[in-house]
Request: fold
Amino acid sequence: MAKSTTTGWAVAGTGAVVTGIGRVVGGKVGAWISGFGLAHIVLGLLDMRRPTIRKSH
Reply:
């Protein structure tokens, strides 16, 4: 099972790639794509800050 920080980095990294693609596309569609990517960066960073609950048996 992946740690939450690994998942957060993956989401943030994917958001960075999508934001870059949006900047290359340009225009209204590029702005929408960039916003979508930026939202994923924020969500990934928030996911890294979220406390985890670990059950040990």
Q: What stands out?
A: The two ends are 16 Å apart (CA to CA). The chain has a mean pLDDT of 88. The first helix runs from residue 4 to 25.
